[in-house]
Amino acid sequence: MLFATTLQAQVPDLSTTTDEVIVTGARFTRSITESPENVTIIDSAVVAQATDLAQLLNEQPGIVINGAYSNPGKDKSIFLRNGSNQYTLILIDGQPLTDPSSLGGAVDLRLLSLDGIQRIEILRGAKSLLYGSDAVAGVINLVTSRGNASEPFTLYLRAAAQTYNTLDAGVNISGTTKKLDYRIGFDYFDTDGLSEAEMPADSTITFQEDGSQRLNLSTSFIYRPNQYLTLRPTLRIAGFNGEYDAGAFRDGDNSYTNDLLLPGLAVDYKKGKTTIGGRYTFASTDRVFEDATFGTSEFLGRSHQGDVFGTYQPTDLVALTFGTQLREEILVPDGDAENQSATTLSPYLQAHLTLARKLYIDAGFRFNNHSEFGNQSNFSIALGVQASKIWSSRVSLSNAFQSPTLDQLAGPFGANPDLKPQVAFSAEASTSLRHPAGKYALNFTAFQREIEDVIVYTSNYENQDKQLDRGVELSAVGQVSKQFSLNGSLTYVKGRRSSFDFNGLPTETEDFFRRPRTTGNIGLAFNAAKSPFTARLSGHYTGERPDVWFDANFSQFEVDLDPYFLVNAYAEYRFLKAENLRVFLDVRNLTNADFVEVTGFSTLGTVIRGGVSVKL
To answer: pLDDT digits over 558-599, tens only?
Structure first.
């Protein structure tokens, strides 16, 4: 979407794209109007008002987070433009967050909080050029706060209480000196929750509540020893633990924990027209399942990722980026099995051109050498045209890949060392209209993505299926009056999966479990100039979709889930002269709608969250 800066500054929309500096899609900073990529930005005001990362992402065009409105401790799956959970890559400050211990390599969203997040940048489409494996459907970049730009010391406190005996609190210390910016943050989340499994109507027992807790510690330092060099060490420590049930419509006494250790270092040296950068991230995840039926299972994942790059900008109209990424993934399986590892070495080149200050072009090539499957290459080309003050268009073509995961290559169940990467090709075209003074903005996007060599499990893992997804996204925002604005979005995506049945005969399906073809959002916001009061009423629509569930005997049942519409409300009032004391009230599922995300599992009723934050 493409929303005007002036409008964004006045209205806390559900999703806001501004003209602020972005980093996703390039190794140098630029405004969003100069990017040929169609980037969505969720700004700091919206992030500050959000309850939870999964629910916030679920309100963005083309994104469905299955489990966003289930019990807080339930697993969350990202379906971006009908892509599977593992096809969306999570970035933190532009660096991929990988987890070799998980099924398919997907990141556990329950570990990540919004505390310390300044904004979120979403880049859709096949984007392996800069980010490597897993960016098949797109990337979601969590950009962290970099301290207070004006004060040497700022203390920020936040506390909230919520339905289901839920507590949510955080503390941040940040500041800026001549050579050092710093931020240290800690947040805590605890809830009694509700029963993860839905209780059948004829049940003679009451299912127990399934609670969960999350702890997050994050630090960021920016040290500038001189005018050319910048060092940014970071550290994130996160822990999640929760209870889960035995399955659909079945209570259970099971627990799950996941611990994340994520240190990193960014180095940038800029002098004249040249920038040299380095990035290093180490990710350690420790998953433990305590299951009443299957016992204790532990999975340890380790990954090292380094990136060295240089950018040369001889003029404001040209930028050349060259770099090399090295990723090593390690899986420590449960039991006495040997550790499994794989390494990918990937040089890449990207060029950015600005022609007549109205035509923007990005083009690049990447070569990947994987220690197991060999070689694979990626390309990307994007073109943006600012045809007039109100009209712009963008077109992009790109491909991406996902490496076979370590458990697929050498795990204990159905491993196949001859697996090839899953490869996606995507095409996207968008056009935008926006008023120069920010009175309205409208964006229309059409897209197509084809994935080949999709890995499926039959008697073992193998490259077998093909998937084709096509769709459109429409988003708009308008200033109704000086106090009110209206915004909304509508997404339609239709997929087709080509496979083989048990007899080896070709088969096709257009049904994807838990992935709706149609989703939409609408929001009405009140924010008068110089008023300390802000309010928003929003609605989220999820269309019908198929689902599958299994009973205690592992018999399979397929059902169709009804569409649902959720209404959410938010209000805040800012006190004191500097308006640094904020009192807020957030109500989710205002009408207490009865709906199903996953068959046999509970969803949240009306959730009331109230709290206070203060900046000192």
So the answer is: 999 999 999 999 999 999 877 789 999 999 999 999 999 999
pLDDT-derived band at 337 (thresholds 50, 70, 90) equals: low
Residue 375, token pair as written in the block:
């070689």
Helix or strand or coil: residue 268? Answer: strand
Output the six-digit token pair for 57: 């992402």
The model's pTM: 0.94
Place of tokens 């790059």: 309
Segment holding 17, helix H or strand E:
none
DSSP string for 556-588: EEEEEEPPEEEEEEEEEEEESTT--EEEEEEEE
Nearest to 597 by CA among 198, 138, 18, 108: 198
Distance CA 105, CA 90 (A): 11
Amino acid at 284: S
Q: Tell me the CA distances in angstroms from 141 to 31, 124, 137, one per residue in order.
A: 16, 11, 13
pLDDT higher than threshold 80 for residue 357: no
Torsion over CA of 141, 142, 146 and 151, rounded to 10 degrees?
130
Q: Which CATH number do you get for residue 441?
A: 2.40.170.20
Range of the domain at 58: 5-615
Into how many domains does the chain fold? 1
> How far is it, in rounded angstroms, from Cα 208 to Cα 200?
13
Give the pLDDT confidence of 225-248 residue by residue, as tens digits: 999 999 999 999 999 999 999 999
CA 522 – CA 439 distance, rounded (Å): 17
- The distance from CA 573 to its chain's CA centroid, rounded to whole angstroms, is 29
